[in-house]
Design brief:
2 domains; two-stranded antiparallel sheet; 480 residues; glycoprotein; single chain; Rossmann fold; 17 helices; hydrolase; protease
């Protein structure tokens, strides 16, 4: 009753979402959205209240990566409360259906557009669009303190931070800010318990050295190419810049041209006009289009994080490793992008009004990944962050879709092992729906590395049932 009363108060403040264009049913739980101001920065959030037990279920903050990509990517295409069906006729508003695998089935979840300049978040002072890891973590911590002031009914709930891709940087840096705030007596006191990172950027050496072994292990390059790269670049080729190394690596991305870097099993989207005149082909063969078919009930789309590639801006004091440049060459050969459903829906004036987002005149048009921010990776390797957080007793689930070529599981497996914790659960399979769904290794200090079989960079998009399954079990502290 107290929770319901508080939520009614929040609704009176104008944050309740009462309807969504394209959806004609009844929401299975309450939705709230709006802005929280941090100085001159207006950060946009969308809260989906848990369908299970809002008063006791965890509150999870979800962050997409880039840097520069909106967390509505997660809302629309991954684990939000709806599945989106392309409008018919073409160009009309998408139709929304309830998502049976929404993460709001078992948690309260906040989708946040961060840093400012991303998605619906904006500032009238555009100089704030120049930012980096440390500033973003500080701003998001300030956001959380103000958000819990707006929704005090959730302060006692367990709180977790989750995200994927470049959120491999966002999540541990923010978690460290939250822990520091707790120690410094920041109010309200956040009931922080742990964090999750999916296919996350972590460390330039481990991430860089994971790429070529991954594609070799996946039979995408030959033994001869692999051995030639090792001979020219050495075992640690993540930052090698010799002419001989570059020449051998060129054979790698020539071999990989045409693949979807975010899931090597998934076809790349092609604008039909781009294929006209190419031997008369206007569509991919059916056998290729069937690769990587998932259990998601509506069409899966692929996206390109594009200009928001990890480490895309030279770090002030860091290194721009070779592997993003290599991967960008691969991706540029065949663009894998089709985000028309989210773009069409989120730029509809009625939708923006319904979710309390500012108009295009104020916040600008919504794009999946923006180029209006200038972002610096200034926090260094995340491995010390993970070690400090887990040593202090915070739980960590590090998961990887095992067919992602953007941030391969090979690097994630290596860095989690490198921390040096005792193995408490040796490598084993885990199951969902009575099927082997991946593998895990558990370490001391409640650190778990988990793979999801057949999934790409955005795990819940490719394997929604399995993703909800491990998410629920981990939050509920049940064995996976």
């Amino acid at each position: 009753m107290l929770l319901g009363f508080a939520l009614i108060e929040a609704a009176q403040n104008g944050s309740l979402v009462t309807h969504l264009p394209g959806f004609n049913g009844v929401f299975p739980s309450k939705h709230y959205s709006g802005y929280v101001s941090v100085g001159q920065k207006n950060l946009f959030y969308y809260l989906v209240v848990s369908e299970r037990n809002a008063g006791k279920d965890p509150v999870v903050l979800w962050l997409n990566g880039g840097p520069g990509c909106s967390s509505f990517d997660g809302f629309v295409y991954e684990h939000g409360p709806f599945n989106f069906e392309k409008g018919n006729p073409k160009g009309s508003l998408p139709t929304l259906h309830l998502n049976p695998y929404s993460w709001s089935k078992v948690s309260n979840i906040i989708y946040l557009d961060s840093p400012v300049g991303v998605g619906f978040s904006y500032s009238r002072n555009t100089s704030t669009y120049t930012t980096g890891d440390i500033q973003t973590a500080a701003d998001t911590h300030d956001f959380l303190l103000k958000w819990f002031d707006l929704y005090p009914e959730f302060v006692s709930n367990p709180f977790y931070i989750a995200g994927e891709s470049y959120a491999g940087i966002y999540v541990p840096t923010l978690a460290s800010q939250v822990v520091k705030g707790i120690k410094d007596g920041a109010k309200p006191k956040i009931n922080f318990k742990g964090y999750m990172v999916g296919n996350g950027v972590t460390d330039p050496v481990f991430d860089g050295n994971s790429f070529v072994p991954f594609v070799h292990g996946m039979a995408l390059i030959s033994d001869d190419i692999f051995e030639a790269v090792i001979a020219a670049c050495g075992a640690d080729f993540s930052n090698s810049s010799t002419a001989a190394c570059a020449e051998k690596l060129s054979y790698v991305y020539v071999a990989l041209a045409g693949l979807n870097i975010y899931d090597i099993l998934e076809p790349c989207y092609h604008d039909p006009t781009s294929l006209q005149g190419s031997k008369g082909n206007t569509s991919l063969p059916n056998s290729f289009r069937q690769l990587g078919v998932t259990s998601r009930p509506l069409a899966v789309r692929t996206r390109m994080f594009g200009r928001a590639w990890p480490f895309r801006e030279p770090a002030k004091d860091g290194i721009v490793p070779l592997w993003p440049q290599l991967a960008q060459n691969i991706e540029n050969s065949v663009p894998c992008i089709n985000d028309e459903v989210a773009t069409r829906w989120l730029n509809d004036a009625a939708v923006r009004k319904a979710i309390h987002a500012e108009t295009e005149n104020v916040a600008g048009p919504w794009v999946l990944c923006t180029d209006r921010i200038r972002y610096y990776h200034d926090a260094g390797s995340m491995i010390p962050y993970h070690k400090n957080l887990t040593t202090e007793g915070y739980r960590a689930l590090i998961y990887s879709g095992d067919h992602d070529m953007c941030v391969p599981y090979t690097g994630t497996q290596a860095w989690t092992k490198s921390i040096g914790y005792k193995t408490v659960s040796p490598w084993r399979s885990w199951t969902s729906n009575d099927q082997v769904s991946g593998y895990l290794q558990g370490y001391d200090h409640d650190l778990t590395f988990l793979t999801i079989k057949g999934a790409g960079h955005t795990v819940p998009e490719y394997k929604p049932l399995e993703a909800l399954d491990f998410y629920r079990r981990w939050l509920d502290k049940e064995p996976i």
